[in-house]
Write a structure and sequence with these properties.
Blueprint lengths: L4 H8 L1 H15 L9 H20 L12 H23 L2 H4 L1 H6 L6 H27 L11 H25 L2 H15 L12 H4 L6 H15 L9 H28 L1
Helix pairs in contact: 2-7, 3-4, 3-7, 4-7, 4-8, 4-11, 8-9, 8-11, 8-12, 11-12
Length: 266
């Protein structure tokens, strides 16, 4: 049974969590001349490249839309949000292994480690998505009040990502092939999700399979909001919501039962 003390203990160690996030941020840019400026320059350059290459150089247009930047926005909406999912899951699958020495030397709630992964990824995403939002506003493509529908979609995505990530993280301690397998799976998963292509481009029989892909509904919701300025089809988020809640329950149960054994395996 999952108990509230698991979460209250994490809250008591919020200083440890905050310090870990700050330390990782500092280490990332320690020997860099521009330092933290890269957190802005790197995502900004990616947004500019997508915009210039696809809308100006290639003249790519998104079917059903007339805007010059429609396909660039479609692409950014998919790639940036998929990046958050990929970062949380891939970092979660190795978080216990990478922090083996810390786990063995210090006494702290091990659940803090997945929380640190999510918050670190959240900070990175907030910066890049904030820049993308600024681009939408400057290019007169801001979707208005519909934009705020992004936040419940983001919540569903984070719940699904961390639930799946916790399962992978615990299993990867005991079966190291899990991490290798998921890395390969993630590549296929990306191309089975309408991130860089519209759903309409798929054959009808292939489209039917998207119902089994929780991330298809999540990415589609972002694209509906940011490209078309429309509220998403909330029903399309049910697979990700259900899968996310189930993964969280299974992940927490697995973590609670195997936390002691993980120390011996690391």
């Amino acid at each position: 049974m999952i108990t509230f003390p698991m979460f209250s203990s994490v809250w008591r160690y919020r200083g440890f969590i905050g310090g870990s996030i700050k330390r990782e941020f500092q280490i990332k840019y320690r020997n860099s001349l521009l330092g933290a400026a890269w957190t802005i320059l790197s995502p900004l350059s990616m947004i500019l490249v997508y915009t210039m290459i696809f809308s100006q150089v290639m003249g790519t247009r998104l079917p059903g839309t007339a805007g010059t930047f429609a396909y660039s926005i479609y692409l950014c909406a998919g790639v940036l949000t998929w990046g958050l999912f990929a970062e949380i899951t891939t970092r979660s699958q190795t978080v216990f292994i990478e922090n083996a020495s810390l786990i063995k030397k210090l006494q702290f709630p091990r659940l803090c480690l997945p929380v640190i992964v999510v918050l670190n990824a959240g900070v990175n995403f907030a910066i890049i998505f904030g820049l993308f939002t600024a681009f939408l506003a400057l290019s007169s493509n801001f979707p208005g009040w519909t934009y705020f529908a992004v936040f419940p979609v983001l919540l569903v995505q984070i719940v699904f990502s961390i639930g799946l990530g916790m399962i992978l993280g615990v299993l990867n301690v005991f079966f190291r092939d899990v991490g290798q397998f998921f890395t390969i799976l993630l590549q296929f998963w990306f191309w089975f999700t309408p991130v860089v292509y519209p759903v309409a481009a798929l054959p009808a029989e292939v489209r039917a399979w998207l119902a089994w892909n929780p991330m298809a509904g999540v990415i589609g919701a972002y694209q509906a909001i940011l490209v078309h300025g429309q509220a998403p089809d909330w029903a399309s988020l049910l697979p990700a919501t259900i899968a996310g809640l189930l993964c969280c329950v299974v992940g927490l149960q697995l973590f609670r039962k195997r936390a002691g054994e993980m120390v011996d395996e690391l």
